[in-house]
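HUMAN: Spend a minute on the protein record below and explain its fold to me.
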Amino acid sequence: MVSSSQKRHAAQGVVAAGMCSQRQACRYLGLARSSWAYVSRPPKPRTVQIGEAIAALAVRHPRYGYRRVHEMLRRKGLCCNLRTVQRMRRDQGLGITGPARRPKVPLRPDAKVKATAVNDVWCVDVVFDTTQGGNTVKFLTIIDEYSHYCLGIIASRRMGAREVVAALARLIEIHGAPAHLRCDNGAEFIARFLQEWLLLAGVETRFIEPGSPWQNGINESFNGRFRDECLNRELLANLLEAQSVARTFQEEYNDIRPHSTIDYRSPSEYRAELLNQAPGSGQARQAGPSLRLELALVPTSNHNQN
């Protein structure tokens, strides 16, 4: 619907351009000639006072809606209509925009693929913390889902797609490439740069469904232990100390800490046992070339002695 003021503005523009007369412009645009000559009156002092009060409340309480602002005005003795407050706030551009809605994403049944061997599924996630100076530190945690083994905790100020690629490339050189990479829908994981690199490396990405952290339960459990047993107990002075603390926790988690889901063995012991059960099995083949070297370092099992 076009308002009278908009019609008047359009008619004045047509007449000023010399396209037609005033009478013809009003007839073509459906504008009364009395509206053509209308001159708006200046606002009343009370209206100006209410507008200034609304602007002052918006500066002090930017998240208040028009109903709450109307009540605040009433308490100050500036009684007016509720719709008047709503209109004046809209004219001043003070409307509140609601929280952004997460776009709907189709279900991803492939996210629920279960690890069947060492190096089958790597789980990655990012944990945030702050230093004593108030600077943000991001920790990229990478876990082998089948053996519960922590492959790495990388601390950095910035954790974008390029930093994730650099961390994964170093770990693949040591442990071999996994078959799948499980992660959430964070910006650093859905970036094209990372996805193209994983495609070249032959690693399939398994995104969990939005709002479903339990689909990445192994990594979420590790992050909870990392925060509860390490980050909440440490005061990080700088990034260098954060890297040292993360490295110490990773070594203790892998080599010392008993894990209840694997009969209170450490992930290092469980990983060595998995790789030493049958060197020619599918588990050893999927573990990657570097892990096959690892088989020669662990003690020989009864299977080899026989």
